[in-house]
Amino acid sequence: MLPRNGKLLRVFIGENDRHEGMPLFEWIVRRAREQGLAGATVLRGPLGFGAKSRLHTAKILRLSEDLPVIIEIVDSRAKIDGLMPHIDEMVQDGLVTLERVEVIKYRANQNDT
Fold it and tell me: Cβ contacts of residue 108 below 8 Å, gap of 6+?
């Protein structure tokens, strides 16, 4: 059960960041799932820059130039805290934020098989 007052963890990285041979964003989502967090979403941005002020952009002739990726995870503070040591260890370049959220609705269709 997801608490009404939860936490939103956002991890801002590049899509080319890797860990153990897989994209870091995929590794983070898989770790969150293994630890029983409520869910995670990966968002790919068409444009952005980070601490080094290097512009990352999608161009017509190129599929990507290490585009920005944001992983969003909402759950209780305790579950987010359990994931944080892994995030701290794996995110070498990036930004990690945590904020309070009010969960309005979280449910799965009970008829799905």
Answer: none
- pLDDT one-digit tens code per residue, 34-44: 999 999 999 99
Sign, CA dihedral 25-31-37-39, equals: positive
- pLDDT category, 113, cuts 50, 70, 90? low
Q: Which pTM value belongs to this model?
A: 0.86
Backbone angles phi, psi at 2, to 5 degrees: -85, 130
Task: Say whether 66 sits in a helix, a strand or coil.
Answer: coil
Spatial distance between the Cα atoms of 4 and 30, rounded to a whole number of angstroms: 24
Core vs surface per residue 42-72: b (16+ CB within 10 A) or e: beeeeebeeeeeeebeeeeeeeeeebbbbbe
